[in-house]
Amino acid sequence: AQPIRRADYRPPDWLVPELALDFELGAGETRVTGSLSAVRSGAHDRPLRLDRDGIVPDSVRIDGVEADWSQLDDAIEVTLPGDAHSIEIAVTLHPDRNTQLMGLYASGGLLCTQCEAQGFRRILPFPDRPDVLTRYRVRMTADSTRYPVLLANGDPVGSGDAGDGRHWAEWDDPFPKPSYLFALVAGDLVANTGSFTTMSGREVQLGIWVRESDLAKTDHALSALKTAMAWDEKVYGREYDLDVFNIVAVDDFNFGAMENKGLNIFNSRYILADPDTATDYDYDAVAAVVAHEYFHNWSGNRVTCRDWFQLSLKEGFTVFRDQQFSADQGSPAVKRIEDVRGLRAAQFPEDAGPLAHPVRPDEYLEISNFYTATIYNKGAEVIRMMHTMLGEAAFRAGSDLYFDRHDGTAATVEDFACAMEDASGADLTQFRLWYSQAGTPRVSAQLSHAPGDGRARIALRQLVPPTPGQPDKAPMLLPLRIKLFGSETGKPLGEERLVLLGDTSADIAFDGVAETPVLSINRGFSAPVILDTNRTAADLAFLSAHDDDPFARYEAMQQLMLDTLVTAVTHGRADHDAVIAAVARTLASPDLDKAFVGEAVLLPSESFIGDQLSVVDPDAVFRAREALRRDLATRLGEQWRDAYDGAAANRFEYTPAAKGLRRLRNVALGYLAASGAPDAADLAFAQFEGADNMTDRHGALATLVNGTSDKRIAALDIFYNRYRDNPLVLDKWFSVQALSARDDAVDQVEELAKHRDFTLANPNRARALVGMFSVNQRAFHHPSGRGYRFVADQLLALDKLNPQTAAKLVPPLGRWKRFDDDRAAMMRGELERIVASAGLSKDMLEQAGKSLD
Ligand code: HT7
Ligand code: ZN
């Protein structure tokens, strides 16, 4: 297959201003008729090209007359004599055979669609590209009993009886949109309804549609939606534009959710929440994803992308917007910690490996492989840096200008940068490298101080590492928030400075520095870089207690832990005292937010420790981390006990304070178990049985699953039997075992893959077992190679059903260069086996093939 290149972009030859769709819906067979107007764009004599994937038209009529067409592998072509024609195309679909979950498919008795990025071409041959904007009118006819609810984009305009036990409904969307935003849903659904009055006084009807048995779990999503609608008006001046806004939850979904105009379709895990089944993490994720998809109504739908290379235009910006929203709902510091942790877990490794690509890629084979942490999360960091450099007011002026200028059009990343420049007067020329250069910049900051002249200097250097296809890099523009603290007084030495590092190296001076300074740099993670400083363990311990930026305080603690763990791995042992003292001090600080404390005292993950090493030894990393965990657990035994007892909550409440207590309590429980306290398993089991919420029940289960007590099997059985009919909770049962720290994790996972409730047909279940296992560093990298073989076997089987979901699970196997020769050879062996398999999808071929380089 030939790659698609950004440089080859050409505007569409034909536009389609109008499309009327008629669906005769059925799970076994659905008949679609599309009537479109085709209008020649520019002077050319090229045919109308209609993309298709796995469908062949039953008929094509041009201006009412049966016409010929030529069939290509991935399109049909129709030669049109004039400049404007009407085309009618009929197609027959089989939704119940659609295991790829792209196009029109059946899920749990529903019929629903997923069209981003290129699913519409599995419904109707069409110019399936985001720069063709079309006004849609949709008519659906279906069995009244099986599909009493018929939803599509826009506003409902009519419905009625169609005879023979069937009924019909018509929807009209006044906003021209690209085909990837088309959606319909048919099913036996009920709605949690509400309304929202917009800032100009219009009332919008809101509906969260689910199976009747799930209705009680939709209040949180509905309330998050209202909060998000009000927030977007207040913070970005963006008002909703249709009379209705519907969300439907489905069980089988390749991604988190989809922002179809006026009809969002969600993976049910990001809608359903009640205290008995959803953790605090799930509650937060529901609110964040509901907000994210809603925010797309402007950043993505009203202003869409010209082509898929511009994907981060909508995704990076919208992730930034949802991050701001979530920060405003609770603790901004904890939210930033979580976001940076996620970036380091997923994006930094991607940027350092064979699949590294710029935020605006230059080419792809299969676009669905580019819904990556780089496009989403690094893209959000790029927007955040603009926000930091321009300041709140100028950034808002830039976003207003962007929305005004490009409303109703398909725009580019360049358009966004220009709007920011035009509104603020800033010059973002060099900053644009963040869009074109892959790789995580490395920054060295060396502080020196001459007590005599009261001057402190910071020698800054940056290096952007080579990445596939980009051997040489220019220096980037890095906004670094910097502050100095006095090591004796613990007080700030002057105001924070925003230093824009644009050269390979620079010297920064601070005057009037009367006492020995300690460097606080990249505060708030102002630039997504890897930092190397000459700060000592004492400096880091000092900052973990005194820095006035909570994020920097957390970072100092993490760096202290990381330095200790890296020493332990590379030298076989390390002095734990500084970490233990810093954790003790944090636990003993009464003014700190409990959620912050829960995050700050957590050790870095095994994979993040591995990322610091030139060659990862997963067993040595595990041993070093366990040793520090045990030492922290035993030496601070009483403090963990106090933290555990002090964080007990009475009844479940979803408030930042109550969440913080649960977070700290579960972290403390983990340490109590690690200390070998004789009552730890009983404590965990009592928490497990007595919990009135999933956070505490799941926290206790995770502690028991990692241990050796006889309560482990009992808890797993109780959990299974209690939730066997709830697929989302059963996913947790699979994933908590896939993440097990026990020696027998691989055996367990192999057994779980044979469990009657395991299926690859459901993406959530596949990710819960296979995806989670492959980030369990020690287990996945078991020296026998069984972990690699297990994952490769699962991926090959999954590729036959759902290539998109399978391809997303390849990256852990692609990190072979980071491991010793034996492991690297086994990992490569599995990738080679995948690539050599007959009938492999384009998705897998691209991911596994690139991973071998
Ligand atoms: N914009 C949505 C992307 C999406 C998607 C992509 C590929 C395959 C299936 C998919 N479902 C949804 C989600 C979002 O970022 O809001
Ligand atoms: Zn999105």
UniProtKB/TrEMBL annotation:
Residues 221-431 form the Peptidase M1 membrane alanine aminopeptidase domain. The keyword Hydrolase applies. Keywords: Aminopeptidase, Hydrolase, Metal-binding, Metalloprotease, Protease, Zinc. GO terms for molecular function: alanyl aminopeptidase activity. Residues 439-533 form the Peptidase M1 alanyl aminopeptidase Ig-like fold domain. The keyword Cytoplasm does not apply. It holds the Pfam family Peptidase_M1. Its EC number is 3.4.11.2. Belongs to the peptidase M1 family. This is Aminopeptidase N. The lineage of its organism: Bacteria, Pseudomonadati, Pseudomonadota, Alphaproteobacteria, Sphingomonadales.
